[in-house]
Structures are given as structure tokens and as C-alpha cells.
Amino acid sequence: MPRPLRRPFFARDVHAVARELIGATMLFKGVGGRIVEVEAYHHTDPAAHSYNGQTRRNAVMFGPPGHAYVYRSYGIHWCVNFVCEEEGSASAVLIRAIEPTDGIAAMRRRRGLKDERLLCSGPGRVCEALGITGAHNGLALAKPPFALWPRRDDVTIATGPRIGITKAVDLPWRYGLQGSRFLSKPFRAQAAR
DNA sequence: TATGAGATCAACT
DNA sequence: GTTGATCTCATAC
Q1: Which residues contact A13 (CB under 8 A, 6 or more apart)?
Q2: Strand C contacts (CB < 7 A) among A residues 81-140?
Q3: From CA A3, how far away is CA A79, in angstroms rounded?
Q4: Is the peptide bond preceding residue A144 cis, with omega within 30 degrees of 0?
Q5: How many CB atoms neighbour CB A27 within 10 A?
Q6: Which mean pLDDT values do the consecutive 10-residue runs of chain A (193 residues) have?
Q7: Rounded CA gap, A136 and A127, in Å?
Q8: Which nt sits closest to A73, CA to C1'?
Q9: Is pTM, for the whole model, over 0.85?
Q10: What number of CA atoms fall less than 13 Å from residue A47's CA on the CB side?
């Protein structure tokens, strides 16, 4: 078994971390799977929550790397990020999609769905399927209930513009597993196939 | 396949 | 009062 991902893994450039998370395994209370889609956000990026400085909501982003930043999206959903770089850098990787491998029955129950493909194909869906809420904001990723493992296989990474934002819309900071059926949305090169 | 409405909360103007 | 790092369901084509 490979060593779990710990704080030094996250204390690096947010884009490097984002790329390396593709294919990595993420579990929450034993439920989860293979990360297939993420987006990178940096405090110099107008689309990032940390762009305009620290607030109560985004405080975790300004803290040490290797922690979970969970926020409410559109008043309805929860979305989880992994804090990266050094303390104060306020950069994070948004987890957008997972290929379910562990605890699929629990995910189906929480999501009220049969289709495995739709269990975790979007940031709000990931949190609902894994049971992540604002109560988990600020938790360390290196210990329970989180468990993270590096990828063991070779992957082809697709990049493209991020989804659902209105600022810095052209920056290609969305990263995904090329050809995965569990993406929230296909990448352009793949769609043109 | 594509577009639109509604749900609902915290930050910000 | 407006706006989102969203998702689901309904209706139209």
C-alpha cells in the first residue's frame, strides 16, 4: 500500500497538486473513490473566494495546507476544497468529480440514485454522496474521517476552462482524467473525438 | 439535446 | 437587494 497523502504533498504549487490529484483516491469515512476532476484556485485569481481577502467563510483557505475548505454553494450544496501551498497563500483545489469505488451503497442511499455515473459527477454531488458538510470545514486531510492515497497508475490529464464562474473564465485551470465517464462535463478535446 | 425556473445562504454593494 | 466555484426537474425543440 502506498503512503497516504500528507501535508507536504499539499504544500506546493496549487496546479501541481491539482494535476497529481487526478487518479488519487479520496475517502471520507470509508466512502469515496478515484478523483477524476478538480479545479485550481489561487488568491491572485479573480474567480477565487480568497481574491478579496480573508472573511469568516474563507478563513480556512488562509490557513495551513492539507486542510479541507468546505463552503455552501448557491445556498443549497456543499463543496469541498483542499488547501494548498504555504499558509497565507490562500490557494485551494476544488474537488469536482469522483469515480465511485468504495461505499457505493451509502452513496446511492444519500443521493437517492441508482446511476453510478451521477453519484459524484459535480462538486455538490461529491459532498452529498460522501456526507461532507460545513461541519467538516477546516479538518486535516491526513487523518480520519479523511483518507487520501496517491495514484498508482499512469493517467492522461485533460485541461480546460473552469465551470460555473464569471470571472477569469478563460484560464484553463480545470483538470480531469481524459476519457473518464464520471466527469461533471466532458473536456473539449474529448467531446470532439 | 437544450434552455429555464426554483431552491436558499453568506458575502458584498 | 444582488450574486454566486450548483443541481434537479420541467418543458420545448
Answers
A1: A84, A85
A2: 81, 92, 94, 111, 113, 118, 122-126
A3: 26
A4: no
A5: 19
A6: 89 97 97 96 93 92 96 93 95 96 94 91 95 95 96 94 90 94 82 38
A7: 11
A8: C6
A9: yes
A10: 20
